[in-house]
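Email to the structure team, subject: DUF2065 domain-containing protein model.

Hi all, the expression group asked for a predicted structure before they design truncation constructs. Nothing fancy, just the tokens so they can compare against earlier work. One-line instruction: predict DUF2065 domain-containing protein, return tokens.
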Amino acid sequence: MWQELGIAVCLVLVLEGVLPFLYPRRWRGAVEQLAQLSDRGLRLMGLTSMLLGTALLYWLH
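Reply from the structure team: attached below.
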């Protein structure tokens, strides 16, 4: 199980690094927009992301 968790963390790091590497200016703008969101908006985005990720994992597995 620890090996799969390590692989998952590595994949997250790779995927998180793709956009800043390919489109640094656009990525910076997106981060600036995220910084202006309210706490409630950020929480809603986080919840949506978690639910979507969970649903995709369930569907793929």
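The chain is about 90% helix and 0% strand. The helical segments are 2-22, 24-35, 39-60. Ping us if the truncation boundaries need rechecking.
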